[in-house]
């Protein structure tokens, strides 16, 4: 039987509670280190504090089983800091996934029409028979519960591609609980860690299946792997 465990607190402290090599897959969406603020003024904790975010990757490496993968979302502006941290932790970069958006989430020298994640290997995971396409359609979450909420559809597709039923999926920057909900809906166990109490409580309610806290699309998600 699958189960969901949500730890409220700092990622490193929460990860230190876990045994080495106890998770099959990590899917995580850390603060992008851009001091983000949405149109309504919502911010992301530690989004301007590399020292409060990056050390978690060494502990993620420890708790991940050998020959397994970590999929980490990242923004291009702090890519140098993240890649250095990943490599120092022991990960090898083995893939890069892009989600294309039909709207621009921001603009600078270019209009930002994508999100991205890197596929990081601990050891030498077996290559899948049918590899996950590294360009994917973006499904907008609505950001109802969290300013940088990912959709259950996008995270669920990653979980199905890189894990099997009854595996344990970890997200130490859980936010509103999307990774744990997507894991549960796909027959995987989940461990999530989140700093902010309000998001821990929300994540608990979402994984408990409280329909008031599920996005509309979540409710139609199936349990199929
Ligand atoms: C980009 S958001 C994740 C959003 C999530 N994917 C969702 O769909 O709701 C990153 C989260 O990491 C949390 N966070 C920041 N620093 C943390 C830390 N040191 N330990 C644990 N969580 C932290 C923030 O509170 C925020 O909710």
TrEMBL record:
All copies of the DNA methylase N-4/N-6 domain together span 23-204
An example GO CC term for this entry is:
cytoplasm
Q: Which domain of life is it from?
A: Bacteria
UniProt GO BP: methylation
Q: Which reaction is catalysed here? A: a 2'-deoxyadenosine in DNA + S-adenosyl-L-methionine = an N(6)-methyl-2'-deoxyadenosine in DNA + S-adenosyl-L-homocysteine + H(+)
Q: What class of enzyme is it?
A: transferase
Matches recorded under Pfam families: N6_N4_Mtase
GO MF terms listed in the record are: DNA binding; N-methyltransferase activity; site-specific DNA-methyltransferase (adenine-specific) activity
The catalytic activity of this protein is classed by the Enzyme Commission as 2.1.1.-
PROSITE patterns xrefs: N6_MTASE
What are the UniProt keywords, alphabetically?
Methyltransferase, Transferase
Question: Family per UniProt?
Answer: Belongs to the N(4)/N(6)-methyltransferase family.
Name under which the protein is recorded = Methyltransferase
Q: Which gene encodes it?
A: yhdJ
């Amino acid at each position: 039987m699958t189960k969901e465990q949500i730890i409220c607190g700092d990622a490193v402290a929460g990860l230190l509670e876990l045994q080495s090599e106890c998770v099959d897959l990590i899917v995580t969406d850390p603060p992008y280190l851009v001091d983000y603020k949405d149109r309504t003024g919502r911010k992301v904790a530690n989004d301007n504090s590399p020292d409060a975010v990056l050390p978690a990757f060494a502990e993620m490496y420890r708790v991940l089983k050998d020959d397994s993968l970590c999929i980490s979302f990242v923004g291009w502006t702090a890519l140098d800091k993240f890649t250095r941290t990943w490599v120092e932790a022991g990960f090898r970069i083995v893939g890069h996934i892009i989600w294309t958006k039909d709207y621009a989430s921001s603009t600078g020298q270019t209009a930002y029409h994508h999100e991205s994640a890197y596929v990081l290997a601990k050891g030498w995971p077996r290559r899948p028979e049918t590899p996950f396409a590294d360009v994917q359609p973006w499904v907008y979450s609505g950001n109802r519960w969290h300013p940088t909420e990912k959709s259950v559809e996008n995270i669920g597709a990653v979980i199905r591609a890189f894990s099997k039923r009854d595996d344990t999926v970890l997200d130490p920057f859980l936010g509103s609980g999307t990774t744990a909900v997507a894991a549960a809906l796909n027959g995987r166990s989940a461990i999530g860690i989140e700093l902010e109490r309000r998001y821990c409580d929300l994540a608990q309610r979402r994984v408990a299946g409280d329909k008031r806290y599920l996005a509309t699309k979540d409710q139609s998600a199936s349990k199929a792997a």
